[in-house]
Amino acid sequence: MPSQAKLFFDRHLEYLAQNDLTGMVNESYHADAILYNAFPIYADLPPWNVARGREDILKLFKDYLDFQGEINVEKVYNYFEDGNVISFQAVINSPKSGRWAAGDIWFMDADFKMILRHYGFAHKL
Question: Which of 7, 45, 104, 119 makes a 20 to 30 Å CA pair with 51?
Answer without folding.
Answer: 7
